């Protein structure tokens, strides 16, 4: 039904149904790619962990941590796709959380690599520390945005039909 109460023409309804099917197929494809990516990353993390334990190399353990954090990002994006399909609209919160995870992943990797790779290289170490600081600020900003978004979602609808000022219930 349109806002005026009329049914849209049949070609509009048919076109809308076709577009919904295409949209669902695209989201399903994205979900499949993210799922396969998660599986590949988990296997890769397991291989890196095994090789790191066998060889005693610190780089392999850092690569394992990097892969595991990337799995968390993929899973959060997969959740975003699922919610988008369920609610038929894009919800911002999963993307904010994915952004927080990306920042944390980069902070952890930089914090682990900086003392070993950049400490004797003054400007590169300083750049890495500035990057850690900026990423930390971005985590705080994204977390604050997520909190505000959750508060907004808990507020009652603005036009819910009952206006206390108009003498409603």
Sequence stretches where pLDDT stays below 50 over 5 or more residues: none
The count of strands amounts to: 0
Question: How would you sum up the major sheet?
Answer: none
Average pLDDT confidence is 82
Q: Helical segment tally?
A: 4
Radius of gyration using CA atoms only: 23 Å
Question: What is the N-to-C succession of helices and strands?
Answer: HHHH
Structure description:
With 169 residues, the protein is mostly helical. It is built from four helices and no strands. It has helices at 10-55, 58-87, 92-118, 122-154. The chain is elongated, with a radius of gyration of 23 Å. The chain starts with 9 loop residues before the first helix and ends in a 15-residue tail after the last helix.
Short précis:
The chain has 169 residues and is mainly α. The protein has 4 helices and no strands.
Keywords, separated by commas or semicolons:
single chain, 169 residues, mainly alpha, 0% strand
């Amino acid at each position: 039904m349109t806002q005026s109460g009329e049914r849209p023409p049949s070609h509009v309804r048919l076109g809308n149904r076709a577009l919904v099917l295409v949209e669902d197929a695209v989201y399903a494809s994205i979900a499949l790619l993210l799922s396969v990516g998660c599986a590949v990353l988990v296997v890769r993390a397991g291989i890196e962990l095994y090789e790191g334990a066998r060889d005693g190399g610190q780089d392999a353990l850092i690569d394992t941590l990097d892969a595991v954090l990337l799995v968390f990002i993929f899973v959060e994006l997969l959740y975003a796709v699922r919610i988008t399909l369920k609610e038929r609209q894009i919800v911002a919160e999963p993307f904010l959380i994915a952004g927080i995870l990306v920042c944390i992943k980069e902070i952890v990797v930089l914090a682990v690599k900086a003392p070993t790779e950049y400490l004797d290289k003054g400007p590169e170490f300083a750049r890495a520390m500035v990057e850690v600081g900026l990423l930390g600020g971005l985590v705080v900003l994204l977390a604050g945005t997520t909190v505000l978004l959750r508060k907004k979602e808990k507020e009652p609808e603005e036009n819910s039909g009952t206006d206390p000022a108009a003498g409603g219930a």
